[in-house]
């Protein structure tokens, strides 16, 4: 018997799926990156050679936070910065090559272990059912190109 899903169920499911996605992207035993810092990194990955101002515009974060985030990511050897050849006052930010390879590999990593943890059991039938349901949700609800846009950019695109 199926139950009626309400707004609270949808919200709670979204939170659990977001946490599962974060775990899958981080990998087991990996230290987590704060979500806001990860969003700045995501924007840099989606828009290489962007200025701090451009990242600020797309993410909605204050410029001071974006600058601090870029400095932190540079310390972690995840991004590199260069002076804009067209305007020496601007700094351009892009992912380091090594970071790009690591991130792409993690993004394509299977997430069965995370699903098993979320389900509380390794029942192959339940795992297959949940995976099929997730694939359907992604195909219907994740817009084409969403993997290359920040959430703020996606909401602005839908508003137009």
Automatic annotation (TrEMBL):
Superkingdom: Bacteria
Gene3D superfamilies referenced in this protein's UniProt entry, alphabetically: Winged helix-like DNA-binding domain superfamily/Winged helix DNA-binding domain
Domain HTH marR-type: 32-90
Pfam families cross-referenced by the UniProt entry: MarR_2
Molecular-function GO term, any one: DNA-binding transcription factor activity
Protein name as it appears in the record: HTH marR-type domain-containing protein
Species: Rugosimonospora africana
Taxonomy of the source species: Bacteria, Bacillati, Actinomycetota, Actinomycetes, Micromonosporales
């Amino acid at each position: 018997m199926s139950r009626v899903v309400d707004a609270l169920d949808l919200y709670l499911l979204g939170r659990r799926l977001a946490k599962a996605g974060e775990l899958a992207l981080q990998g087991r035993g990996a230290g987590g990156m704060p979500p806001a810092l990860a969003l700045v990194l995501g924007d840099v990955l989606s828009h290489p050679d962007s200025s701090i101002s451009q990242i600020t515009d797309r993410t909605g974060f204050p410029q001071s936070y974006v600058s601090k985030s870029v400095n932190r990511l540079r310390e972690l050897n995840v991004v590199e910065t260069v002076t804009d050849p067209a305007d020496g006052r601007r700094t351009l930010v892009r992912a380091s090559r090594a970071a790009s390879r690591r991130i792409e590999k993690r993004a394509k990593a299977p997430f069965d272990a995370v699903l098993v943890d979320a389900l509380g059991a390794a029942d192959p039938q339940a795992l297959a059912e949940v995976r099929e349901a997730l694939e359907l949700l992604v195909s219907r609800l994740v817009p084409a190109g969403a993997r290359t846009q920040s959430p703020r950019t996606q909401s602005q695109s839908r508003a137009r």
